[in-house]
Design a protein that fits this description.
The protein is of the alpha+beta class. The protein is built from 14 helices and 28 strands. Strand 3 and strand 4 form a beta hairpin. The chain binds adenosine-5'-diphosphate and magnesium ion (MG).
Length: about 575
């Protein structure tokens, strides 16, 4: 494909540009529009005879009919190698702070910068020797990247071949343009291994032995999630919720506390200011587990709503490809996409420009399959060397008016393993996280005892039923027993499900503390028959208990203060249970 293939623009329709050419065109290949000194990146999204219909990743203002288009023959790809961690990229993998220095904060059209600087050197340690047989994804060595061993791997597209090591570089510092190993395939053809490789973003990286069913819980340290609606390592989940209900805050907390190695944040901003804020605050946050900057184990891909739609689409794919890359190193990676509705809207906009037959709410008919194939890139895998890695994907959805009956939410619910639905009612009541426990579900297993979990679910439903009933018939018509069930549910919500993001202890609860508290709540509060003869007494008792629990939640785990608070709570509880136990004894 060395011959230059060009075309001429015959139509411009927003970010969709059509070019006519005498050459063959490849579906999804990248093309550049030559507009004076500017070269605008585009992707061929449909081929019709001698016409290439392209989505342009930049504003097309001033682009004219007759201007030249150069086809590259390459699929939209990302650079994979050491130096990704800690970076903030746009959807086309341009480093943002880097560009900001060059062009001011807002990106200049057609300004592309290499994602990983060629000239940076990395301290390489070889892991193979001459004569070793390798395949795509095999580790030839490693370099230190932040706190990780970043493995240098045989290009993934060589997946099936037997590759013999002809030579390998001795330990030392090399840049990304220097080959660190030479390989020879069965046909005698040589292949060089560099510390950096390119990979097309729309194709999953599959240089692993097998994909497994996700079964290990991913600990987010958010009690409501881990205990009642867990996510598994390598699993998928979604967070639909109305505007302002707390989706972004929830994802930020998760990016900080989730027990994974690496977090990839794909921020397709709802508002322009939101992403700028992420860019400013993220680098200043410390990793609560390592004490080092959180950004050291994070990659941020961001787009604001003011960027062209095609760039938004690309960012989702760029993010998941980087996540898969680190999974190949045997790491647990969490990809957080906020908000996938923006991505779906980009699809809708391009589909409209292509004049495709619209589906529900004008989304394209392939919306469902695109969403499915995105989430399918999650998974826990056994790598060829026997180690294991995972990509977990969590995406927020922002349906208009918070109505979950819309196509993006519905398509996502069909494919994900857990659903954390935020409700306006909860967020208005400032019950954070505003995940509605009556609406949400998870197909994964929690680390909390199953029997205890299902009891808690039943209690919450019962409590809600009584509350709804009281709305109709009033408190007077409710029995004391029902009223106590109502109070138990409310108590469980306030003292366990809700978490105060402004309290440094309460904002993140480790798994063993969750197990301990949940068991306590189950056997000593929820299941316990309490001697509360009147509603006033019951109300007063649970108010007191709630205050005590609130205090307990702020006391660090396994400290004398923790034990002291527990003792006090047990005394209060035992007082109310005392009589009953005497009778039944
Ligand atoms: N866990 C939380 N604790 C305290 N306040 C929260 C929490 N979640 C959300 N909020 C409040 O709600 C506001 C909107 O949240 P945000 O995550 O931006 O909503 P969304 O992304 O759903 O539009 C936040 O600015 C904050 O004031
Ligand atoms: Mg948001």
């Amino acid at each position: 494909m060395t011959e230059k293939r060009t075309g001429r623009i015959v139509r411009v329709n927003g970010n969709m540009v059509v070019a006519e050419t005498g050459s063959t065109i490849i579906q999804n290949e990248v093309a550049y529009i030559a507009h004076g000194a500017e070269h605008l990146k585009a992707e061929v999204i449909r081929v019709r005879g001698n016409r290439a219909e392209m989505q342009v990743f930049e504003s097309t203002t001033g682009i004219n009919i007759g201007e030249e288009v150069d086809f590259t023959g390459e699929l939209l790809s990302v650079e994979l190698g050491p130096g990704l961690l800690g970076q903030i990229f746009d959807g086309l993998q341009n480093p943002l702070p880097h560009l900001a220095e060059k062009y001011g904060f807002f990106l200049k059209r057609g300004a592309y910068t290499e994602a990983l600087p060629d000239e940076t050197t990395w301290d390489f340690t070889p892991l193979v020797k001459k004569g070793d047989i390798l395949r795509g994804g095999s580790r030839v060595g490693f370099v230190p990247e932040k706190i990780f061993k970043h493995y240098i791997m045989v290009p993934f597209q060589l997946a099936a071949s037997d590759l013999e090591v002809v030579s390998v570089a001795p330990g030392g510092r090399y840049d990304l343009k220097t080959a660190v190993a030479e390989l020879k395939d069965r046909n005698g053809k040589s292949h060089s291994v560099y510390m950096q490789q390119l990979w097309p973003v729309k194709i999953p990286i599959k240089a692993y032995a097998e994909k497994l069913m996700p079964s290990t819980p991913l600990v987010t340290r958010m009690r409501l999630i881990d205990s009642l609606f867990p996510v598994a390592l390598g699993g998928t989940y979604c967070i639909p919720g109305p505007f302002g209900a707390g989706k972004t805050v929830l994802q930020q907390l998760t990016s900080r506390y989730a027990e994974v190695d690496i977090v990839i944040v794909a921020a397709c901003g709802e508002r322009a200011g939101e992403v700028v804020e992420t860019l400013k605050t993220f680098p200043t946050i410390n990793d609560p587990r390592t004490g080092r900057p959180l950004i050291d184990r994070t990659v941020i891909i961001c787009n604001t709503s003011s960027m062209p739609v095609a760039a938004r689409e690309a960012s989702v794919y760029t993010a998941v490809t980087i996540a898969e890359y680190y999974r190949q190193m045997g790491l647990n990676v969490l990809l957080l996409a906020d908000s996938t509705s923006r991505w779906a809207q980009a699809m809708r906009e391009m589909s409209g420009r292509l004049e495709e037959i619209p589906g529900e709410e004008a989304f394209p008919a392939y919306l469902e399959s695109r969403i499915a194939s995105f989430y399918e890139r999650a998974g826990v895998v056994n790598l060829n060397d026997g180690t294991r890695g995972s990509v977990t994907i969590g995406g927020t959805i922002s349906p208009a008016g918070g109505n979950f009956e819309e196509p993006v939410t519905q398509a996502t619910l069909k494919v994900v393993g857990a659903f954390h639905g935020l409700s306006r009612e909860r967020s208005d009541a400032r019950r954070y996280p505003a995940i509605d426990p009556l609406l949400s579900w998870s197909k994964y297993k929690s680390f909390i005892d199953e029997k205890e979990v299902s009891y808690a679910h039943r209690m919450l439903r019962k409590s809600n039923d009584v509350m709804q009933m009281m709305k109709v018939i009033g408190e007077e018509g409710t029995s004391v027993a029902d009223y106590i069930d109502y109070l138990k549910g409310e108590f469980f919500d306030f003292s366990y499900l809700q978490q105060n993001a402004f309290d440094e202890v309460d904002e993140a609860t480790p798994a063993d503390r969750q197990k301990y508290i949940f068991s306590f709540l189950y056997s000593d509060v929820l299941k316990r028959e309490l001697d509360l003869p009147s509603k006033e007494e019951a109300l007063h008792f649970f108010q007191k208990l709630r205050q005590l629990f609130k205090g307990w939640n702020s006391v660090p785990w396994k400290t004398p203060g923790f034990e002291k608070a527990e003792k006090e709570i047990r005394l209060v509880l035992d007082e109310k249970a005392h009589k009953k136990e005497e009778i039944s004894a």
